[in-house]
Design a protein that fits this description.
By secondary structure, this protein is α+β, with helices and mostly antiparallel strands. It has a domain of 62 residues. 40% of the residues lie in helices and 22% in strands. The chain contains nine helices and twelve strands. The protein has a four-stranded mixed β-sheet with strand order 1-6-7-8. A four-stranded mixed β-sheet has the order 4-3-2-9, covered by helices on one side. The chain has a two-stranded antiparallel sheet with strand order 5-10. The longest helix has 19 residues. The chain starts with a strand and ends with a helix. The mean pLDDT is 96.
């Protein structure tokens, strides 16, 4: 049983905006420290940015407009906490306490991901999809339900009829759709809106990739300040995560679908 939401779901719009702001930080500095929270809905986009990177507020406003359209931005930029910044001075060390797990994707989860991507190629508006055994539920806004029924004749398509979604109907917030992004690998930490010194990003990616490679679940724990996790230098885990993020086109692209 798994649910996927597409990149135009309001929560994913928030994740994408947060990711775009992190991309701006990495364009400004090699190893920025940044954490972003976004709340969007009904014509407004609120973004709180904690960072030591020198960001241009006009660039942030342009990213919000490009991703979310005509919304009123409310942007707050504040310095990152001194203690958190000092934790990273001199070398990469674990940016927070946390427990993490990686779980191999099931065939069901992979199948729904393929379905979600395929539908989004045709319909780029707000949508969410569930697969539970043989039961496929497709809720796709601004779509011809009969057309979708033709593509997926055994699916339950828009059970309450055609609908209009998006941020004018529903609010979105960062890291609210982690089940869609991580499947059974979800723990307490969010993936989006953070630099790679944050364990929520780098160690989650490490655990997920390791589980796919081994074909079995992986469980990890770390404390803030650890210089190794899973027997691996933290700097190497950060480098692995950076390679993964770069391979898919950056943090904004990562936010579109998460890890699968």
């Amino acid at each position: 049983m798994i649910e996927k939401v597409n990149p135009s779901h309001p929560d994913k719009v928030a994740d994408r905006i947060a990711g775009a702001i992190v991309d701006l930080a990495y364009a400004a500095e090699e190893n920025p420290k940044i954490a972003v929270e976004v709340l969007i809905g009904h014509g407004f986009c609120h973004a709180i940015v904690e960072t030591d990177a020198k960001l241009n507020i006009r660039d942030i406003m342009d990213a919000i407009s490009r991703i979310a359209g005509d919304v009123q931005p409310d942007i707050v930029i504040v310095p990152q906490d001194t203690h958190l910044s000092e934790n990273q001075s001199g070398q990469f060390r674990c940016g927070d306490n946390g427990i993490f797990k990686g779980v191999p994707l099931t065939e069901e989860q992979k199948k729904l991901s393929e379905i979600a991507h395929s539908i989004y190629e045709k319909y780029t508006s707000d949508g969410k999809y569930i697969l539970d055994g043989n039961r496929l539920i497709i809720c796709q806004s601004n779509a011809d339900s009969y057309d979708l029924m033709g593509d997926y004749p055994n699916a339950e398509v828009n059970p309450l009829g055609d609908w209009t979604g998006g941020t004018d109907v529903d609010t979105g917030a960062t890291n609210r759709k982690l089940g869609s992004d991580m499947a059974d690998s979800v723990t307490g930490g969010g993936l989006h809106g953070k630099d790679l010194s944050k364990a929520d990003v780098s160690v989650n990616i490490h655990a997920f990739l390791k589980a796919q490679d081994l074909g079995e679940p992986v469980s990890l724990v770390c404390a803030i300040g650890d210089d190794t996790v899973d027997g691996v230098p933290y700097a190497d885990i950060v480098a692995e995560a950076k390679e993964y993020i770069d391979s898919i086109g950056g943090f904004e692209k990562f936010a579109e679908w998460g890890l699968f």
